[in-house]
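agent: user wants the full assembly modeled, not chains individually. Plan: 1) parse entity lines 2) check alphabet per entity 3) run joint structure prediction 4) return tokens. Steps 1-2 passed, two entities, 729 residues total. Proceeding.
--- entities ---
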Amino acid sequence: MEPVWNGMLTCDYERTRPHATPFEWDLYTRSLLRWPLVLMNDPEPYGRLRRAGIVDVSEPVHRALTNRWHAHLRDPDYVADLITRTAADRQAVALALDACDTANQDNDLPGLTAALADATTAFLRVNATHIVNWLLPEDRWEQLLADLLGSRDSALTCLSALQLPTKPGHILATATAETDILARRAPAAARREAWTTAALVAAAGNDQALTEVRALAMVLSWAAGSEERRKELREHLLATARAWCDATSTDPHRITTEDLLGEDRHDPHHDNQTLGRR
Amino acid sequence: MTRTTTIRLWDAADPARHGGKAAALATLIRHGLPAPDGLVLPADLTDAQVTEAIDDVLTWAASTNTVHGFVARSSAPAEDGAQASFAGLYASRFAPASSDALLDAIRDVRAAATAPAIRAYAALRNITTPPGVAVLIQRAIRPYASGVLAAEIDHGTIRRWTLEAVHGLAIPVVSGTQRGERHHSDSETPVPAAQSEIILPGTATELRQPPGEWITLPGIEDRPGLGAKIRTSGAGLLHLYPPNTDQHRPVLTAALRDQLVETAAIVAAVLHHTSIDIEWAATPDGAVHILQARPLTSPIPEQPTLTHSAGTIWKGIPAAPGRATGRAHHLAAEASRTARPAGDDAVILCENLGTNALDALLHNPAAIAATRGGPLSHAAIVARELGIPCATALPDDLLTIPAGIRITVDGTAGTAELAAARGVDARAFVPDTAAAKAESPAAGGARAAPD
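--- prediction returned ---
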């Protein structure tokens, strides 16, 4: 995100992802605009699309939406629901991409086109979670944990330990069977459990702090896992889109999300997925 | 025009009223040297007289090209003298071509002259500073490159010189916030720049463009201007991200470097100095402009071979806790399998990590230092999974460290530090641009890019 300019923040994926195609920029900006809808069932868009790759967000909108989200993130029930819903979103993308692979193997172009539209629609929800890279309430959590654990260093170490995916990240997931990745990750998993326990014990007796620690421990693990799984799905979707371009003699550098979604499905706020309870 | 209030720069001859900077530049102009013309608001003007003078300035501006706005520069009586330069203590302000913005800029420059640091510097040097400061108004130049040059002259011949150059205005070099490309008379090979931002005066249209839009950088012959994205803008200036494709290209051509050195010799001769310190700007038309000229008040430093030395610290973001020291190992080299594999004493240097890093990671590297991403980047996550200390969002400059140099990563503090030498001489090295490109991934300006 660029520095505030005339009361406006700018998210510029053209700069941060200079080698991406316009389709990929489109995926990022569309999903950025609707993260409040996907993660909070809040219809207010996060800013305004300047063009595929760039979104402008007024400071008041940014503050209002992030404050609302941060308030939700203090509620373990909301977080549990968020985890369930986003896991379902990822599953929907995975299933649609599997259907793409099957159709592609069968040289079934209409089937591939339809499945790719489903995958793209579903991925726009999954990609909305990429905001965890800069919109989590890290300062608040650091202060809370520093107060509970007695030092900033302990707070930072705790936060770091909690940011561990439940399953191996996408790099370790590529290891061959001979490498016992779970054994390699065991100390990190033990550290996460130990620091979770330490933070909960430190918060004992303070219901508000205890609730918040429970929630943040869940959020941090979810955020790390969400990023790793999103990366795998994004790569799979982009590869599938390239295969579709090959099959339709289309230039992959010129396609848009609309091309893949088909008509009547290009409204950036169109969402035919099941919404969360909140 | 109320000529008693402002004077043309070439008429500035009284250092007490017009300041040392204006007097020196006026001398250069009268000798036909390429200093931009301007107006001088003498040091003894009252605030009311300054306000009245704005009309004079705008009338003068109508006769010159101010499409990129103005610059208001201090020109204090004691500034740029032989005993003391007052370098960096007085102020310069850029402003778009409007009366309000220009008046604000002039007031800022005059107000900065009362800063305690100026009195303290003068007291240290046992110099009396008269009250007030003259203000030099010039059209803003939009340079291809600019910088500073210091030279010692012996009987009209340059003996030793050093210069520092950046793309755009010299503000990052003069303020010391960025390292320019460093040339020295003792070496044919410059030390590359580490420029993270290009600053240019903007047109009114450009200054209304939001961050993310593209600006064409000034080019020179055989180097057409590249597109650069706006990071932010304000006070008449555009702050731009350097183009990724331009990171390893030298700023100066040999011809431009030689032209600058020759110009410095002429300036010194005209001003009767045996040593000279100039601020310069080179524009796309091939012209070199002298923006400031003063005697050198300290010796020319030795050849700048020490771009990094033991103890150099790069600051980034804590990503995985712990502290470890090992040999720098560039992941790009590992991926191409042209270098020995990373071992348990390796510190992996990278932009971010991908699946090609798996082999290196499974060899138990000591630490990971990444120039991109935050605590949820893939490098950070895999580092925590394997218990490897890791810092991310470190400066791109880190990637110029040659393989084998010992480096310490503190993943709790989010830093990387050049360690004391062991086997390899880490006390001094000059990053060879070509070698660095072969060994390391290209350095880019972007940070914390979600992946």
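agent: reporting back. Residues 333-339, 422-449 of chain B have pLDDT under 50 and may be disordered. The first helix of chain B runs from residue 15 to 30.
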